[in-house]
Specification:
Helices cover 29% and strands 25% of the residues. It is built from two helices and three strands.
Length: 63
Amino acid sequence: MAHKTLRVEQIGSPIRREGDQRATLIGLKLNKLHRVSELEDTPSVRGMIRKVQHLVRVVSDAA
């Protein structure tokens, strides 16, 4: 059984944001604008995305 993945793109800058938001972006393998990361769809990743939802966009729910 294949694990479901999410493609996430950074659309906002972490400048003038709290340090934990910057660390969350790094945890999501994002740290530059328009960078796309493919991540496993887990509750912890969903929580990280929710924390920085104003800085990222879910590009697709890849199967």
